[in-house]
């Protein structure tokens, strides 16, 4: 079945504290966004890309990928979930029964992990996400200001959720639309599906699929980019 790809890239990168949004910072000779697109484009099942950009984004038109006929620009929204919903509303769910959503800020995702997610979800007939089991001991703080430990959280069954996340297009669109209309806090696609009572598969990927968030992440991403495929 045909899969549309949504790339939310309309953030400002507040935590990065750089002079431009992090998706436009240099990484191994290209921008972060171009590296992300390069990985996604190595997956033959992905042919049509819906890129959510800030309406006054001056950077994207300067990139060589701006002329790529497989990339369609859509207007981003106030929060990541609004950017994703705007893109979903542009997608014909009959032509593309599945949609894969991937953060522009995750340029190191492995092609083999994307393919594992697609194969696992389509075989199961269920949406799912790349994730890894939590490795560190987890603490619950008693008080966010004081930062003393209240207790150790049982780590059993705790996972880190990454992107890409793959779902049936119409189900995700409706779940996201309804959750946002009811002001439910939505941090990823899976949380909208969970809220709607729909299943989400956990597909174990690799922990090098980092989201570039703070300045120190760029050096790590550059290392991973050159040492993984
Ligand atoms: N994103 C988006 N629309 C928004 C906010 C975020 O499309 N209104 C995108 C970002 O561009 C990024 C992805 O969602 O590719 C993940 O978001 P995050 O890492 O939080 O990026 P920013 O919001 O840009 O960073 P920060 O939260 O530090 O400001
Ligand atoms: Mg953000």
Give a verbal description of the structure:
Helix 2 crosses helix 4 and helix 4 crosses helix 5. This protein has 6 helices and 11 strands. The chain has one domain: Spore Coat Polysaccharide Biosynthesis Protein SpsA, Chain A, CATH 3.90.550.10. The chain has a 7-stranded mixed beta sheet with strand order 5-4-1-6-10-7-11, with helices on both faces. Strands 2-3 form a two-stranded antiparallel ribbon. Strands 8-9 form a two-stranded antiparallel ribbon. It has helices at about 30-40, 80-90, 110-125, 170-180, 190-195, 215-225, and strands at about 5-10, 25, 30, 45-55, 70-75, 100, 130-135, 140, 150-155, 160-170, 200-205. It is globular and about 55 Å long.
Number of helices, where a helix is a run of at least 4 consecutive DSSP H or I residues: 6
Structural category is alpha/beta
Topology order in helix (H) and strand (E) letters: EEEHEEHEHEEEEHHEH
Q: Mean of the pLDDT scores?
A: 97
| Cα radius of gyration in angstroms | 18 Å
Outline type: globular
Distance between the termini: 25 Å
Q: Output the CATH class name.
A: Alpha Beta
- Strand element count: 11
